[in-house]
Amino acid sequence: MREVAALAKVSIKTVSRVVNGESGVSPRLTRRVTAASERLNYRHNLPASSLRRSDGRSATIGVVLEDVANPFASTLHRSIEDVAVPRGVLVFAGSSDEDGDRERRLVSAFASRRVDGLIIQPASHDHSYLLSERKAGCAIVFVDRPPKFFDADSVVTDNAAGVRRGVHHLIANGHRRIGYLGDLHTIDTARERYEGYCAELAEQKVVVDEKLVRLDLRGIEKAEAATRELVTSSRPPTALFTGQNFITIGAFRALRGLGLHKKVALVGFDDILLADLLEPGITVIAQDPAAIGRAAAELLFRRLDGDKSPSQTTVVRTRMIARGSGELRP
Amino acid sequence: MREVAALAKVSIKTVSRVVNGESGVSPRLTRRVTAASERLNYRHNLPASSLRRSDGRSATIGVVLEDVANPFASTLHRSIEDVAVPRGVLVFAGSSDEDGDRERRLVSAFASRRVDGLIIQPASHDHSYLLSERKAGCAIVFVDRPPKFFDADSVVTDNAAGVRRGVHHLIANGHRRIGYLGDLHTIDTARERYEGYCAELAEQKVVVDEKLVRLDLRGIEKAEAATRELVTSSRPPTALFTGQNFITIGAFRALRGLGLHKKVALVGFDDILLADLLEPGITVIAQDPAAIGRAAAELLFRRLDGDKSPSQTTVVRTRMIARGSGELRP
DNA sequence: TTGTCATTTGACAACGTTGTCAGATATAAC
DNA sequence: GTTATATCTGACAACGTTGTCAAATGACAA
After folding, report:
1. Phi and psi (nearest 5°) for B288?
2. CA/C1' separation A14–D9 (Å)
3. Which of A310, A318, B143, B196 is the most interior residue, by most CB within 10 Å?
4. Which residue, among B113, B117, B108, B138, has the nearest Cα to B63 in the 3D structure?
C-alpha cells in the first residue's frame, strides 16, 4: 500500500480510501491510485484491515460438519456458501467425524482465525464451551441438531414427525412387525427418530418388540450385517424402517443379497441419489438439507447484522417420497 | 494479551513466548501466564500474529472445486482436509460451478485473506492470472485437470486411458455400435475422455459414427433426454459409454424408462454410490478422488516446506469395476 | 566480595491497515 | 480581495502480535 501511495504520489490514507470505495476522493486521484494498484499488482490485505477496522470483522465464517464428503453435509455446505459468498464472506469447513473433541478443536481453530460466525452440526454433548466464543462476538447457529447446555439458534428437521409418517405408512400398508435400524444412539437425531418410531407404534396400538430393533449401527457394513441377521431370524419383520441414509443402503443391500428386496417393505430416513432407479424404488422420508443450510446461514447473517431477538428454533419439514419399497404388503 | 500480561505481572512479550511455546521462559512465569490466560479466556489472534510474523504464514489454504456438494469434489475436499488439519492448517472451500469468472473471484477472495496455498480444480481456460499470486508466495496445485498457460503442479486422472479401457471392454463383449455421451466440451477432461473414445475405436478399426455421439450434456436431465433420443433413433447403438457420473445416471434412467436397461450395455466414467445395487449393476471406470486429493495436498505442503523442484504432474490411475451393465452382449 | 557468563526478561518498533482529526485547497458570496 | 464554507487530503496513532536487542537476574568460581 505504501508503494502504491508512492507511485501515485498520494498518502497511504488516500489509497486506503480508494481501496475501500470511500466517498470524498477526487476522480483525478482515484484514477491515479487505481492505475498504480494495477501496475504494482496490489492486493488488499484483509486480515490486516480487519485487525485495524473498528468492527473487527474478518468476512469469514466457520462451518463444522459431520463430514464434508457426506452427501447431506456437503449439500448443507453448498447452500451455506450460496448465502455467504454473495455477501463477500468466505467459508472455512471442517469435519468432526461425530467426535466431540474434534468439534471443539475445529471451533477453537476457527476462533483463533477470528471468524465472524459459526455454523455447527453438533457432535459434542455439551456446548457450554461456546460461551466464551459468543462473548467474543462470534455468532453461532446450529444445524441438523439442537445445542446442549447452551442457548442458541438452531435449524433442525422434524425427525420424530418424519419417522412417524413413514411408520404410519407401513402400518397403513398392513404391516405390524416393523423392524427399526438406527444410527449411534449418542446422536440426538438418532434418538429422536427412534422415539418417533416408538410413538407411532404406540399410537397405532402396536407393541414395540425389542427383538426387531437394532440401534448403534454406524456405516453401510454394520447396517447390512444387522439387517441380514434380523430378517433371517425365526420371527422376522415384514417391514423395516431405517433411520439414516447409509443404514438404508446397507439394509437394501442385505435384502438384495437375500432375494428379499421385493418381499420385505422398506422405508428409509433421508433421500438417496438413485433411490428411484432401484427395484423396487426406495420409499424415503426426505429431508431438505439445502433449505436447512440456507435458513441457518440467513439466520447467522441476521444475527451478524445486529438482530438481538431471543434465540429461535426453525423446524424444516420432511417429505415422504413413495417409490415402491414402502408399498410392499406383508 | 496485554490484559493477560498485566494479570500475570509480566511483559506482553513473555506472554507471546508462552503462547508460542518458545523456550527460555522459567517454569514459574509459564505457570503464571497460563493461569492468567485461562482466567481471562484469552484466545490467540492468529491473523495479527501472522501479520507480524516473519514468514507471514496464515496457516490457511483455499480450495476451489467445481461444486463442494458434488460427490467427487467433496471427497477431494475431505482428503485435502485430512492432510491439512493435522498440520494446523484450515481449509477455505468454494464452488466455481464450472465458471472461469467465479474461479477467479474465489481465488482473489482467498488471496485477499492471504492463504498460504491454493488447490484448484480448474474451470477457467487461462491461468496466467495466477502469476501474481505465486509471486506473492502462494503455492498452487491443480487437481483433476491441468492448468492452462501456467506452469504448476497438478494431480490428474488418466482420463483417456480409462475411457479406452471401458470402450475396449465393450468391444470385447461384441459391440460395434457404441454411443458416447459427454460433458461440456469446454471442460478439458471431457475432451480428453472423448478423445480416448475415438482413439480406442480407431485402434480397434471401428469407424466413429458421429450420429452416435452427444456432447455438451450437463446434468442428469440433459443426459436422460439425449439418451432417450439416441436409443430410440432408427439405427440405435447397442452400447453406451457415458463420460461423467451424472450423465451415467441420466443414461441409466432413460434406459430404465424405456425398458432397455438389460438390453443396451453401459459403461460409465466415475463410480456411483449404489451402482452395485441397480439391476444390472453399472460397470464403471472408477477414479480415486481421495488419492487425488491426498496427493495434491501433500504436494502443496512440500512446496510450502520449500521444495523448489520443477513442477510435476502426478497421474492417478483408474480402475474398471465390472458389475453387469458393461457385460451385456448385443 | 567481585567478576564472568549463561539464562531469562522486557522495551520498543514494526507488520499492513484504518479511525481521527487537523490542515490544505477549491468554491462561492460579498 | 476578503471571508466563509465545503470539499479533499495527509500525519499520526492504533489494532494484536512478534523480531530485535539490550538489560536484568542468577549461578558459579576466584
Report:
1. -125, 80
2. 7
3. B143
4. B117
Give the protein-side footprint of strand C (Cβ within 7 Å).
Answer: A 1-2, 12-13, 16, 19-20, 43-45, 48-49, 51-54; B 9-14, 17, 23-26, 28-29, 48, 51-52
Q: State whether B46 and A113 contact (CB < 8 Å).
A: yes
Residue A196 CA to residue B202 CA, distance in Å, equals 60
Q: What is the pLDDT of residues A147-206, one digit of tens each?
A: 999 999 999 999 999 999 999 999 999 999 999 999 999 999 999 999 999 999 999 999
d(CA A316, CA A166): 16
Q: Helix (H, G, I), strand (E, B), or coil: what is residue A40?
A: helix
Least Cα distance to A93 among B47, B74, B104, B144 occurs for B74
| Residue A291 touches chain B, beta carbons under 8 Å | no
Contact list, B75 vs chain A (CB under 8 Å): 69
Q: Extract long-range pairs of B225-234: CB within 8 Å, 24+ residues apart.
A: B225/B250, B225/B254, B226/B181, B226/B250, B227/B181, B227/B251, B227/B254, B227/B255, B228/B254, B228/B257, B228/B258, B230/B179, B230/B181, B231/B179, B231/B255, B231/B258, B231/B260, B231/B264, B232/B258
Q: Is the CB of A7 under 7 A from strand D?
A: no
Q: 0.90 cut: is pTM over it?
A: yes
In a mutational test of the A interface, the residue from B41, B91, B112, B130 whose CB has the highest number of chain A CBs within 10 Å is B112
What are the per-10-residue average pLDDT scores of chain B (330 residues)? Answer: 93 94 89 94 95 93 97 97 98 97 98 97 96 94 96 97 98 97 94 97 95 96 97 96 96 96 97 92 97 98 96 97 96
Residue among B153, B157, B98, B152 nearest B292 (CA): B157
CA distance A221 to chain B (A): 13
Q: How far apart are CA B285 and CA B73, in angstroms?
A: 17
User: CB-side exposure of A33: number of CA atoms within 13 Å?
Assistant: 22
- Closest-approach residue (CA) in chain A for B290: A69
Angle at B115 between CA B113 and CA B121, to 5 degrees: 115
CA of A148 to C1' of D7 (A): 56
- How is residue B122 written as a grid cell? 480448474
Query: Which of A46, A78, A90 is nearest residue B69 as measured by Cβ atoms?
Result: A78
Chain A touched by B37 (CB under 8 Å): no
Q: CA-CA distance, B2 to A324, in Å (whole number)?
A: 66
Phi, psi of A61 (to 5 degrees): -125, 160
Task: Count helices and strands (H / E) in chain B.
Answer: 12, 12
SS3 A288: coil
